[in-house]
Design brief:
disordered N terminus; about 200 residues; mainly alpha; globular
Length: about 200
């Protein structure tokens, strides 16, 4: 099956997202360091840019899986915390931490934008079912890479503990393997199944 479909994405979307990356990527490097690029949600920015310009159904579908549920849960947690001060899920506490630079918090709002951009791409290009396997494989590369190549205090991709909190209940390698298995099942599979169901209707 050909995963490239030409001429289906508007030029304005490609240009707008390119301008975003040209602003976001150096800002992240300056504010928090390039190690943070290994966050799967940050990798999604770069991959989605490639997918939009290539009009790759596979790459755009992969980033739809990577951002749809993650972005929704991120927005839900941040929204409820903004209204009530309570984090029902966790992971967005830094958005309300005065010690976190305001610029970093503003940059993090992309979690709300990526699902919209990737979703628009899937609507225009269609969904590639193989995206689940490919995104899972990318996760199995990014998670151990974050464990080996980033500072532990950053807890990139939660490789040292869930929701930004270090864990000491499990051996670090056992926890890492569990994280690699659970991430695709909990965060990608529901989106994959729902998108396939919607595509058939």
């Amino acid at each position: 099956m050909n995963v490239i479909h030409r001429g289906r994405l508007p030029l304005w979307l490609k240009m707008a997202f390119t301008l975003w990356i040209l602003f976001w990527a150096p800002a992240v490097a300056v504010k928090v360091g390039i190690q943070n690029y290994l966050w799967l949600c940050n990798l999604a920015n770069f991959l989605l840019l490639v997918g939009l310009w290539a009009e790759s159904r596979l790459i755009v579908s992969m980033q739809w899986l990577a951002t749809a549920l993650v972005g929704t849960l991120w927005g839900l947690d941040a929204g409820i915390a903004w209204i009530s001060g309570w984090h029902p899920i966790g992971g967005t506490e830094y958005m309300f931490d005065a010690d976190t630079p305001r610029g970093v918090r503003l940059l993090s709002l992309y979690h709300l934008i990526l699902p919209l951009v990737a979703g628009a791409g899937v609507v225009r290009l269609g969904y590639a079912p193989r995206a689940f396997v490919w995104q899972a494989a990318l996760t199995w590369l990014a998670v151990p890479a974050a464990f080996l190549l980033t500072d532990p205090w950053r807890n990139v991709n939660w490789v040292h503990g869930p929701f930004g909190t270090p864990q000491d209940l499990l051996d670090p390698i056992v926890y890492l393997i569990g994280l690699m298995l659970v991430w695709p099942v909990l965060l990608y599979l529901p989106v994959h199944l729902a998108t396939q169901w919607a595509s058939r209707r």
